[in-house]
Design a protein that fits this description.
By secondary structure, the chain is an alpha/beta fold. It contains 11 helices and 17 strands. The radius of gyration is 21 Å and the shape is globular.
Length: about 375
């Protein structure tokens, strides 16, 4: 029997159900244990997931510290709230467990640097849970961006990720809790916007940024961003912008512009349901013939044959599989930790700008 990565899930957040399924379909992983604050909650989570996507042997229901002490756990997935996540990442690294960490990874870059440094020192893998980084669409998009003709010289990258939260969300969801999720929509959604821009720029940091909190909300006396807009200024004259919000209806588009064309990705975070992850190269032509002014679209659709979710080739499954390969290979790839830290550095700078009258803020590693 080939070796498998034995996972522990540290927390029973809803997103953990998706990653449970990703691990089950990865072909190189099993969930050995699930931890929660109460045994009954862990047992209920396991029973519900086993009923839909069962492992041959049901995982054990344990407490947090007990999970980290188990010898049958190689790696942990940590979907705990951002406000308490650092403690458990550091404990996991000290226990020699590899760490797949939900995003935003920390409340600020100081926390994330402590996490990534601890994982590097312990010789364990650290990766954040940005699933689109593992989509088969990205290599196709990179080829187009680099071919010199489809987009040409890069000039701008923009994106929006938003959904319209209802009264129940504002009344009780932890994503508007200043204690548990102090970064609000900027952390929950803006992390993806910033990551996409950094990916386009091959992870070069912007020189400077500006940010603006357009709307905020407080449930516990600590306001968090509900709606945020940022501008990024990269070396070489490339600019970027992003908008993230809990107030506008679901959108998740990204657009990359150059001097010869542009690319539109309508669903850059979670591919629309189906068997393809696609994007469109836009090369419109404007023609003037006397009194006729004609704009011709000339689009080219490019797609990766990849399930949107819940299949062996879906991006969350690819993430679990890739993480398992790194664990089983015994050679952590610390570039994943560096990418997470860069994302947090840009996010922090945008928030500092917003809290200081949207002044221009420099970004340094």
């Amino acid at each position: 029997m080939p070796p498998v990565c034995r996972w522990g899930i540290l927390g029973t957040a809803n997103i953990a159900r998706k990653n449970w399924k990703g691990i089950r379909l990865s072909g190189n992983g099993v969930v050995a244990a699930v931890a929660s604050r109460t045994p009954d909650r862990a047992k209920a989570f396991i029973a519900e997931c086993q009923a839909e996507v069962p492992f041959t042997e049901a995982p054990a229901a344990v407490g947090y510290d007990e999970l980290l002490a188990r010898e049958d756990v190689d790696a942990v997935y940590i979907p705990l709230p951002t406000g308490i996540r650092k403690e458990w990442v550091l404990k996991a690294a000290a226990a020699g467990k590899h760490v797949l960490c939900e995003k935003p990874c920390g409340t600020d870059a100081t926390e994330v640097r402590a996490m990534t440094d601890a994982c590097k020192a312990a010789g364990v893998q650290f990766m954040d849970g940005v699933m689109f980084m593992h989509s088969a669409r990205l290599p196709l998009l990179r080829k187009v961006l680099d071919d010199g003709n489809s987009v040409g010289e890069l000039r701008r990258v923009t994106s929006q990720f938003s959904f319209a939260a209802g009264a129940d969300f504002l009344g009780g969801n932890i994503r508007v809790s200043g204690a548990l999720e102090p970064l609000g929509a900027l952390g929950d959604l803006g992390w993806y916007n910033i990551r996409f821009a950094l990916w386009v720029m091959k992870f070069a940091l912007p020189d400077r940024v500006t940010g603006r909190v357009l709307n905020e909300y407080a449930t516990d006396g600590r306001p968090v961003p509900l709606e945020f807009a940022g501008e990024l200024f990269f070396p070489g004259g490339v600019s970027g912008s992003f908008y993230c919000s809990f107030r506008t209806e679901l959108q998740q588009w990204a657009h990359v512009s150059g001097d010869k064309g542009s690319v539109t990705v309508e669903d850059f975070v979670l591919p629309y349901h189906g068997s393809e992850a696609a994007f469109t190269v836009q090369k419109p032509v404007f023609r003037v013939k006397g009194c006729s002014f004609q704009m011709e679209p000339h689009p080219t659709r490019i797609a990766a044959h990849e399930a949107s979710d819940g299949r062996e080739d879906a991006q969350e499954t690819n993430m679990a599989r890739r993480f398992g390969e790194l664990v089983l290979g015994g050679k952590p790839d610390h570039s994943w930790a560096d990418i997470a830290l860069k994302t947090q550095l840009v996010l922090d700078a945008c928030l500092r700008s917003a809290r200081d009258g949207s002044r221009v803020v420099g970004v340094t590693g």
